[in-house]
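[job 0412] stage=complex_fold ligand=NAP status=START
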Amino acid sequence: MNIGFIGLGIMGAPMAEHLLKAGNTLHVWARQPQKAEFMLNQGATWAQSPAALAARVEVLCLNVSDSGDVEALVQGENGILAGAKPNLIVIDFSTISASTTRRMAELLATKAGHWVDAPVSGGQKGALTASLTVMVGAELAIFAQISPLLAQVGKTITHVGDVGSGQITKACNQIVVSGTLAAIAEALLLAEGAGVDPARVREALLGGSAHSRMLEIHGARMLSGDFTPGFKARLHQKDLGIVRQTAEELGLALPGASLAGQWMNALVGAGLGEADSSALITVLRRLNGLAHRAAD
Ligand code: NAP
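[job 0412] stage=complex_fold status=DONE, emitting structure tokens
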């Protein structure tokens, strides 16, 4: 299959590599061309613009940062709409808002194309090992067409419903993830404040009902103080902005998610936007006047 890929970052780079290794012909574009060199070295082909890319593929994958980035790629000068042929399928792996997603789908439909929202969970590790959870919003017939391709990057693939429902699912995921992250940071800090070894506390919790993959991976990052991303705090902040915006559109109160959003604001405000979001424990340490560890 001829596949295009835009967004070769922490998540997109390994996903594109899996698609190439699975035997697809890969075409790429990047706003900083040097970031695509590693793909060209493996046999991918360069396209001069998103429009040129859209014109030569059957499926175009996106994995960029935010709603505005997807809008710019679709509607901008030399954008995807300008090159889209009938029956083009755009699979958007980025985490963006459901309302933007539905608007993009309508625009693409004017070119007889099909939009699939397919945000992922599982982090960098899931992307590297092709074991991501993929939450899909799409027409059923289109989902059937692309599910073999999704299986090349993910393990748990769920068709949730129509276009937009994948992004709603991801927003739900981020409510759970951010609440858990804040709870882990508080638990480890309580242990430390009480003079009990936080590493032993984490070990004990991993055996009981508090076990989670977040406690495994992000708990370990908090203990080591290694906040190499991972999942950048500014992207986590963006996701909670999407949750807030969606709740506002629906007239729903989600107080826990709002609090988690405030934590992410504090993290980015503290200059840690490019760090992994488990650096949240650093903000909590500062709030409590605890001495910084060297790693913080
Ligand atoms: P990242 O490392 O910052 O990569 C983002 C990529 O998108 C970069 O290659 C960037 O190009 C490109 N990009 C952004 N805006 C663009 C635009 N307007 N035009 C062209 N290219 C653009 O981020 P990531 O961690 O891979 O995350 C990508 C998406 O996956 C986000 O929506 C994020 O929320 C979601 N996600 C991330 C994780 C995670 O653990 N990292 C997990 C699940 C979901 P430049 O290099 O030029 O900046």
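Residues 6-12, 31-32, 35, 63-65, 69, 72-73, 94-95, 120-121, 123-124, 231-232, 235, 239 surround NAP (CB under 6 Å).
[job 0412] exit 0
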